[in-house]
Amino acid sequence: PLALVERLELVAVSAREAHARRVLAVEALGETREVLAVPALIPLLGDPAVEVVNAVRGALTVIARQDFGTSSQKWSAWWTENHHRHRVEWLIDALMHEQAVLRAAAGEELKTTTKEYFGYYDDLPKRERERAQFRYREWWSTVGRARFSRS
Question: Scanning 73, 80, 104, 108, which has its CA 20 to 30 A from the CA of 88?
């Protein structure tokens, strides 16, 4: 994944590239859902091209299933706290996000990625969502971490 991220990053950061091409590179980085893309994307939140910044926010939101708007400070702080954690853990965190659309996306992606389902729906009452999130956390600590380990 690193080679792909690096190639797309080169296009995304290049001032010589057309905005549309840079936006496509940023969107592609988001669609990879690759954790390695996050530190490449965060600096682009300060880009002078609004289209690029909006694409970066979208890409970061897809990868992290969090939304800190276009604040590079908030994204950087989040990255500092979470870069060492597996992306599946980020998805589990997002099950309680305030935005229903992010909760729904995280829930669907968890089911697809892990092949596990603990009765989670984004529109459940908060207490029931917390229970499902707890079951995912239990699964992660007992089974998932070993199954998804990169080593």
Answer: 73
> With the CA atoms of 110, 5, 62 and 128 taken in that order, what torsion angle do they form, in degrees rounded to the nearest 10?
30
Spatial separation of the C-alpha atoms in residues 26 and 48, rounded to whole Å: 15
Distance CA(124)–CA(108), nearest Å, equals 14
Q: What percent of the chain has pLDDT over 70?
A: 99
For residue 18 the two structure tokens come to: 């057309």
Q: How far is it, in rounded angstroms, from Cα 148 to Cα 92?
A: 14
Backbone angles phi, psi at 119, to 5 degrees: 75, 25
The CA-based angle 137-143-146, given to 5 degrees, is 110
pTM surpassing 0.90?
yes
Instruction: Write the Ramachandran bin of 14: left for phi over 0, alpha for psi from -120 to 50, otherwise beta.
Output: beta
